[in-house]
Write a structure and sequence with these properties.
By secondary structure, the chain is α/β, with parallel strands linked by helices. The chain is built from 12 helices and 14 strands.
C-alpha cells in the first residue's frame, strides 16, 4: 500500500493534480476511491503506474447491492447518457476480490442493472464502452463473507502498465549483475522520482543500468557512474547461471538497445561517487539509485597508500589509486550532498536505505536542509532487516554553508548505525541457520 499510494501521489502531482484528504484509501481493500479532476489526467496516470491495475469512472457505490442500486439511481443521468446512446455498443463485466462467482451468479447481478437507461447494443468482443461491477469480499481467504463488504459500479477508463513488469523482466535482460533491480521496483522508483520526457536522470551507482532503463522508457535521457571498471565496460565474470564470462556485447548500452531505448542513453563513466568530478552548474532532473549495502556488492571508494602517510611534503607523482572502505553513513551523506548541489529545484532523489528493523526509528533517515522528505516506504528483506525507498525533493538552493550541514548540532551520530548493517544482517542469517539446524536435529 505504501508504494502504491506514493506512486499515485507522485504521478498526480506530475500531471498537475493534487492528492487531498478526501481521497478514500483503505489499507484492507484493493479498491480506492480517488478524486481526479479530469479523465485526461486519469489516463495520463494509468500510462505510468505499475501498481494500479485499472481506473474507472465511479457511477455508484454501496455496502450492499441495495445501496449500490440507490447510489446509481441518484447518479446524474446527463453524465450517463453520452455512454448509453442507441448507436453505441457496450458490455458489463464483473470482478470479485477474494471470491469466485458462477456464470449464473454473474448473469443475475448484471440483469439486476436493467433499470439503467442502456440504449445501445451489447457487444462482448469489441464494445465501445465497458462497465464493471466490482465486489470486495475482504482480505481473509479462510473467512469469506456471503455478501460483499463493498460493491462498486463504473465505466472503465484505462488499464495501468502492469505488463511492463513482465516485458522488462530481469530474467530476459541481456546484461545483468548480482544486484540488478527488479523491473517492477525500477518503474516504481522512476514514478516516485516523477521522471518525464526530456529529463536528464543520473544514477551514481549505475551497476548494469537497470534503473536507467525504466527512466529511459518514460522518455528521459539517462547517465550513470560506477567505481567498478568491469561492470561499466561489461567485462569479467558473468552473474548469469551457467555462464562463466560476460560476452563481447554485454554492457549497459546493449541493455538500452534491447528495449529500443539506446537513443536515450548518454553514457556511463568509471567514477567514484565520493569524489567531485562535475563542474558547477551541471544539473539533473532526478537522481535514482540503489547504493551498495556491503552484502552482495562491496562498499568501496578510491584511495591511495599515500593517504595513510599524512604528510603534505610528499609529491603527488605516481599516485596509484587503491580501493578503501566506504562507510554506509558516508555513502548516504555524500549522496544527499550531491543531490542538494546538482539537482534542479523541485528535482527528486530516490534511493534505497538498508535498515536493521529492531533499531529503526525515523530519526535515522539521513536529512539535508536543501532536501524535503517526500516518502519512506518499507520493503521487507528478512525478519530483522528491510530496506526503505526514500524519496526526497530539492526545495532550497544549495549554498557553500550547506556542504557539511549534516555535521551540525550532533545530527550525524544517529546515522552511524548504518555502518554496522552488514554485521547485523549476517548475524541474523547465522542465527537463522543455527535455529534450522537445531530444529532438524529434533
Amino acid at each position: 500500500v505504501e508504494f502504491s499510494l506514493q506512486e499515485i501521489m507522485s504521478l498526480l502531482s506530475l500531471y498537475g493534480g493534487q492528492f487531498n484528504n478526501q481521497q478514500e484509501i483503505r489499507v484492507n481493500s484493493p479498491f480506492w476511491i480517488l478524486d481526479i479532476p479530469s479523465e485526461e489526467m486519469a489516463r495520463g496516470l494509468m500510462k505510468r503506474t505499475v501498481c494500479a491495475k485499472s481506473i474507472f469512472e465511479l457511477w455508484g457505490h454501496g455496502r450492499s447491492a441495495g445501496e449500490l442500486y440507490t447510489s446509481l439511481k441518484s447518479y446524474p443521468v446527463e453524465k450517463m447518457l453520452p455512454y448509453l446512446q442507441a448507436d453505441s455498443t457496450y458490455k458489463i463485466r464483473i470482478h470479485t476480490f477474494n471470491k469466485t462467482l458462477t456464470q449464473a451468479e454473474k448473469i443475475k447481478k448484471i440483469d439486476a442493472l436493467e433499470f439503467l437507461p442502456f440504449s445501445g447494443k451489447v457487444n462482448l468482443k469489441s464494445p465501445e464502452h465497458v462497465f464493471w461491477i466490482l465486489e470486495d469480499y475482504g482480505m481473509e481467504p479462510n473467512n469469506v463473507p456471503e455478501e460483499p463488504l463493498d460493491v462498486y459500479f463504473g465505466r472503465w477508463i484505462a488499464d495501468g502498465q502492469r505488463e511492463l513488469i513482465e516485458s522488462y523482466s530481469v530474467k530476459k535482460r541481456h546484461f545483468i549483475g548480482n544486484t540488478s533491480m527488479d523491473a517492477c521496483l525500477s518503474f516504481i522508483m522512476a514514478n516516485h522520482g516523477r521522471v518525464k520526457p526530456n529529463d536528464v536522470v543520473f544514477d551514481p551507482f549505475v551497476g548494469t543500468g537497470g534503473l536507467l532503463i525504466s527512466s529511459a522508457h518514460f522518455g528521459a535521457y539517462v547517465y550513470g557512474t560506477d567505481i567498478d571498471y568491469n561492470t561499466v565496460h561489461g567485462l569479467g565474470k558473468a552473474s548469469r547461471k551457467n555462464q562463466k564470462w560476460r560476452g563481447p556485447d554485454e554492457n549497459i548500452r546493449a541493455n538500452l538497445r534491447q528495449y529500443g531505448l539506446e537513443s536515450f542513453y548518454l553514457d556511463a563513466l568509471v567514477s567514484d561517487s565520493s569524489k567531485p568530478i562535475w563542474r558547477k552548474g551541471v544539473l539533473f532532473d532526478a537522481i535514482i539509485t540503489d547504493p551498495p549495502y556491503g552484502i552482495r556488492e562491496a562498499t568501496r571508494r578510491t584511495g591511495s597508500q599515500k593517504e595513510a602517510v599524512k604528510s603534505s611534503e610528499r609529491s603527488t607523482e605516481n599516485h596509484i589509486f587503491i580501493s578503501s572502505s566506504y562507510h554506509l553513513s558516508d555513502i548516504f551523506f555524500d549522496l544527499l550532498k550531491f543531490a542538494a548541489e546538482y539537482l534542479v529545484m523541485g528535482g527528486r532523489l530516490v534511493y534505497w536505505l538498508p535498515i536493521y528493523r529492531p533499531e529503526y526509528t525515523e530519526e535515522i533517515i539521513p536529512r539535508h536542509p536543501c532536501l524535503k522528505l517526500i516518502s519512506n516506504c518499507e520493503q521487507m528483506l528478512s525478519s530483522h532487516t528491510s530496506r526503505r525507498l526514500i524519496t526526497m525533493e530539492k526545495v532550497k538552493e544549495f549554498k557553500d554553508q550547506d556542504h557539511n550541514s549534516y555535521l551540525l548540532d550532533g545530527q550525524y551520530m544517529p546515522y552511524k548505525g548504518h555502518n554496522s548493517f552488514r554485521e547485523k544482517y549476517f548475524s541474523g542469517v547465522t542465527k537463522r541457520i543455527a535455529k534450522e539446524e537445531k530444529d532438524n536435529q529434533k
